[in-house]
Specification:
- This protein is an alpha/beta fold.
- Helices cover 29% and strands 27% of the residues.
- The termini are far apart.
- Bound molecules: S-adenosylmethionine (SAM).
- Residues 57, 61-64, 87-88, 90-91, 93-94, 108-111, 114, 136-138, 153-154, 205-206, 208-210, 213 line the site of S-adenosylmethionine (SAM).
Length: 216
């Protein structure tokens, strides 16, 4: 496939998978139109990169379906000056989308080989506003807290309190919560007093493994 074919595949993805299913935030749609998703995958998968499904990225992990990436990103309601935390760097694709929409992105991955691959491609694409660290993301990133947005791209058995505490007042946490086979995507907004929870629908993610997630 040529460069123009990938750009066309992206346009089709935005129209048929995102706009058609109700993604409205212009900034999210523009970011999804711009970021070359195929470059976050092994070359053998490039022809499938813009399909309506998750794909393997090695180590038994996946890059999420484009619609889920767009839905979770839109739910964060980013303005451009935000500080965002991502748990589950994986391929680095979601981090690149966030980097288009926020000022600074802090991303945590527990598998070092995935973090290294993600770092390489993010550097090649010039995303200098993404910082990656290898650790158990269920602890969050205390030294950089609080965050305007926190996005967890792996399924948790329950909402880690550690992450709730690292949200700014007015900030949003987007996280899939449920059992190992299916989860509900939740948005939790931190208010002056307490938290407000919304159900954004069903989803299926790989497990969030850590001290405040699933045991390995
Ligand atoms: N956001 C990724 C992307 O754009 O490719 C997809 C993430 S993949 C569905 C989930 C990732 O979460 C995996 O790479 C997995 O290793 C990671 N993960 C699971 N538990 C974690 C934890 N406690 N801390 C950090 N990363 C974790």
């Amino acid at each position: 496939m040529k460069y123009t074919d990938f750009a066309l595949a992206r346009r089709k993805m935005v129209q048929e998978q995102l706009l058609a299913r109700g993604i409205k935030d212009e900034r999210v749609l523009r970011a999804m139109m711009k970021v070359p998703r195929h470059l976050f995958l092994e070359e053998g998968l490039w022809s499938q990169a813009y399909g309506d499904f998750p794909l393997p990225i090695g180590e038994g992990q996946t890059i999420s379906q484009p619609y889920i990436v767009a839905l979770m990103t839109e739910a964060l309601r980013l303005k451009g000056d935000d500080k965002v935390l991502e748990i589950g760097t994986g391929s680095g694709y979601q981090a690149a989308i966030l980097a288009e929409l926020a000022e600074r992105v802090f991303s945590i991955e527990r598998i070092s080989s995935l973090a290294a691959k993600a770092r390489r491609i993010l550097d090649e694409l010039g995303y200098a506003n993404v910082l990656i660290k290898v650790s158990d993301g269920t602890y969050g990133w205390e030294e950089e807290a609080p965050f305007d947005g926190i996005i967890v791209t792996a399924g948790a058995p329950e909402i880690p309190k550690t992450l709730l505490r690292q949200l700014k007042v007015g900030g949003r946490l987007v996280i899939p919560v449920g059992n190992e086979y299916s989860q509900t995507l939740l948005r939790i907004a931190r208010k002056e007093s307490g938290y407000k929870e919304e159900d954004l629908g069903g989803c299926r993610f790989v497990r969030l493994i850590g001290d405040h997630g699933w045991r390995a």
